[in-house]
């Protein structure tokens, strides 16, 4: 068991991603123990490669990008837009709107439900704002008077 320094190069060959180093090292341990014929080693290596590829494919968790409100953009009655969508931390929201009419304010739960802006809240007003979702609850409103009350607000839960 303590001769794995011999097999160190295989570890780097088998590492197919930062998340899979534990699987990779256990695979190389299996290889270390099965010191049979060259053919056996090759098939174990092939199996390891296939497993790596399968793990990589099933992990398909690339960050998604969403245009808030769809083609209509960030406007009134956008509060139902998140319904039925599955968001993940790291996904990016794009808020498209006329900066002369609207803004985007990052608020908390109370700010969302009462349409109030917490002290020190981040206000975005470029008209093309990109925001990366954090894990858990994310709340956004437009703080122009009356707009949030007209549904210019969204609450998003990111897994
Ligand atoms: Cu507005």
Automatic annotation (TrEMBL):
Keyword Phosphoprotein: no
PANTHER family on file: BASIC BLUE-LIKE PROTEIN (PTHR33021:SF515), BLUE COPPER PROTEIN (PTHR33021)
One MF annotation (Gene Ontology) recorded for this entry: metal ion binding
Sequence intervals crossing the membrane: 44-68
Keywords, comma-separated and alphabetical: Copper, Disulfide bond, Membrane, Metal-binding, Transmembrane, Transmembrane helix
Classification lineage: Eukaryota, Viridiplantae, Streptophyta, Embryophyta, Tracheophyta
Protein name in UniProt: Basic blue protein
Highest taxon above the source species: Eukaryota
Domain called Phytocyanin: residue spans: 64-159
Family matches, as Pfam families: Cu_bind_like
Positions in coiled-coil regions: none
Record flagged with keyword Metal-binding: yes
An annotated GO cellular component: plasma membrane
């Amino acid at each position: 068991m303590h001769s794995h320094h011999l097999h160190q190069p295989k570890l780097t060959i088998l590492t197919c991603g930062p998340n899979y180093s534990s699987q990779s090292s256990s695979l190389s341990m299996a290889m270390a123990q099965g010191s049979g014929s060259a053919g056996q080693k090759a098939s174990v290596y092939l199996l390891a490669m296939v497993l790596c590829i399968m793990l990589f494919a099933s992990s398909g968790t690339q960050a998604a990008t969403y245009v808030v409100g769809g083609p209509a953009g960030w406007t009134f009655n956008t509060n139902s837009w998140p319904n039925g969508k599955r968001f993940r931390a790291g996904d990016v929201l794009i808020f498209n709107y006329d900066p002369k009419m609207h803004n985007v304010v990052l608020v908390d739960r109370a700010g969302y439900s009462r349409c109030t802006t917490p002290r020190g809240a981040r206000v975005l007003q470029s008209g093309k704002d990109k925001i990366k979702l954090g894990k858990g609850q994310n709340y956004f409103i437009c703080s122009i008077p009356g707009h949030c009350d007209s549904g210019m607000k969204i609450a998003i839960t990111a897994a």
